[in-house]
Amino acid sequence: LPAGAVSLRLRSTRVAAEGINKPLIDRIIRVDHAGEYGANRIYAGQMAVLGRSSVAPIIQQMWNQEKDHLKKFNELMVAYRVRPTVLLPFWNVAGFVLGAGSALLGKKGAMACTVAVEESISDHYNSQIRALIEEDPEKYKELLQIIKQFRDDEREHHDIGLEHDAEAAPAYSVLKMAIQLGCKAAIFLSERI
């Protein structure tokens, strides 16, 4: 691993539930899995529209990281015995439509979507980090490392979006606000259902 990188492998396929706040962990893993699943579908939609454009390699690079994030949360779902949200079929369609729809506005639209979503996700990850630290930073050390690493990846995607003219998208502030409201609703629902 490169210096500063976090090993994202679990030591075993199951985590001892002894002493953990199971409702908190279930909620965190369920919503993060849903979020990474949705992000994968957004990038799939963007690539369906912009896959042959000059921005395709950048979108593909971010999508590859999201695929790694989803793989890790799939593993965590099994390790912590967490059921996925029942809304995955909806997020499948909604994510793809959001990605493709924003890409139909061109590169700037796709990047505006990326900025809005990744800002929402990194803020949400920060809330989870605070909650886990308040609970017991040593007990949740491995999960904290994973979430911190993924939060940093999401911030990087956010910054890439800004570097690629997201703010020049048509009606950027309205688009960003609408997408972020959707993200908040998706987070709220996925934590609970």
**Based on the structure, what is the oligomeric state of the protein chains?**
single chain
Q: Low-confidence stretches at least 5 residues in length (pLDDT < 50)? A: 9-13
* Biggest pleated sheet: none
- The count of DSSP E runs of length 2 or more, i.e. the number of strands, is 0
Q: How many helices? A: 6
Distance between the termini: 37 Å
The mean pLDDT is 93
What CATH first level would be assigned? Mainly Alpha
SSE topology string: HHHHHH
Domains (count):
1
Q: Which percent bin holds the helix content?
A: over 70%
What name is given to the CATH topology? Ferritin
Strand content: under 5%
- Secondary-structure-based class equals mainly alpha
Spatial shape: elongated
Radius of gyration: 17 Å
GO molecular function: 3-demethoxyubiquinol 3-hydroxylase activity; metal ion binding
Pathway: Cofactor biosynthesis; ubiquinone biosynthesis
Protein name: COQ7 protein
Keywords: Iron, Membrane, Metal-binding, Monooxygenase, Oxidoreductase, Ubiquinone biosynthesis
